[in-house]
Amino acid sequence: MSDAVIEVSGLTKVYRVHERQEGLGATVRSLFRRTFKDIPAVTDASFRIAAGEVVGFLGPNGAGKTTTLKMLSGLLYPTAGEARVVGHVPWKREGDFLRQITLLMGNRTQLVWDIAAADSLRVLQEIYRISEERYRATLGELTDLLDLGPLLHKPVRNLSLGERMKVEFAAGLVHSPRVAFLDEPTLGLDVSMQARIRRFVAEHNRRAGTTILLTSHYMDDVVALCRRVIVIHHGRLLYDGELGELAQRMAPYKVITVALRESAPSAFLDELGTVVSRDVASVRLQVPREHAPERTARIVRDLGAALADISVEDPPIEEVIDRVFAGERMPEAATA
């Protein structure tokens, strides 16, 4: 991966926090003698991301996702390890580095609350020293992709959450960064607005070739945007690879959904696998992955005219990720 724009090696962040017991006596004692505890947030993280990739960064709350993004965007110094983003050490906060990256957080704003969004964008034009021609071209493209026309001249405080998030994207991308760190960009949005933001991110990546590292608790975001995922838990990377391969390695079964014209014998279904759900018109079965082709053929052969339709799928990715977070051991990748 010689064209990597994000390179991370052994990145570690440990927070040293003050521990204090409750009560007045403990408070007084803490004035003279403090007890500290080291809390590891990220431990020995290593990965590389190529130019133009959209990578999902997955983990439960407290896994270390946001801490990692803050180190890669230069907001935090690591305790150990190295990182380079677009050829720069992030925590040096060099001007050329800052002009090439953006960090968008779903629960944070970079817009001025009491003025029109267009005025906040003009402030950013001056900060990034964007020429008028380039500014107008970029803003025009973002306005088209995000349908910003009616929003730019409203005070930010008058925008709904979804409207504000669209303007936040414009503010984060108006300087045409090469790398975008997106931390829960659809947090709190309704289903329709989540879908619109996903379409925008995909189209912006296609047009501009921006490298994107995305965290999200909404698996629809990840499935729609990311072929590759990095899974982190308790500060350690558990998996880095294709999203589809994660399902193959962590879920040792396939889900067979059978649509029926008439009911099938229970004994026959029980022989095939584990019945997950069943009603008059359909049955869902969990079948060991290696037996799925044979069981599918058997269903088609033995049910005959009673069979209306059949599909074979991996389990939902949410279920796969839950297995990872529950502490199940990650199987080793198959070798040729």
What would your notes on this structure say?
This protein is an alpha/beta fold. The chain folds into two domains: 4-246, P-loop containing nucleotide triphosphate hydrolases (Rossmann fold), CATH 3.40.50; 252-313, Alpha-Beta Plaits (2-Layer Sandwich). 36% of the residues lie in helices and 29% in strands. The chain has twelve helices and 13 strands. The chain has helices at residues 24-30, 65-72, 95-98, 117-128, 132-146, 161-173, 191-208, 219-225, 243-250, 266-272, 292-303, 317-325; strands spanning 4-19, 35-50, 54-58, 80-85, 101-105, 179-183, 211-215, 228-233, 236-242, 253-260, 274-278, 282-288, 307-313. It has a six-stranded mixed sheet with strand order 5-6-7-3-8-9, sandwiched between helices. The protein has a four-stranded antiparallel sheet with strand order 11-12-10-13, with helices on one face. A three-stranded antiparallel sheet has the order 2-1-4. It is globular and about 70 Å long. 32% of the residues are buried.
Give the SSE map:
Layout: E1 4-19, H1 24-30, E2 35-50, E3 54-58, H2 65-72, E4 80-85, H3 95-98, E5 101-105, H4 117-128, H5 132-146, H6 161-173, E6 179-183, H7 191-208, E7 211-215, H8 219-225, E8 228-233, E9 236-242, H9 243-250, E10 253-260, H10 266-272, E11 274-278, E12 282-288, H11 292-303, E13 307-313, H12 317-325
Parallel strand pairs: 3-7, 3-8, 5-6, 6-7
Antiparallel strand pairs: 1-2, 1-4, 8-9, 10-12, 10-13, 11-12
Helix pairs in contact: 5-6, 9-12
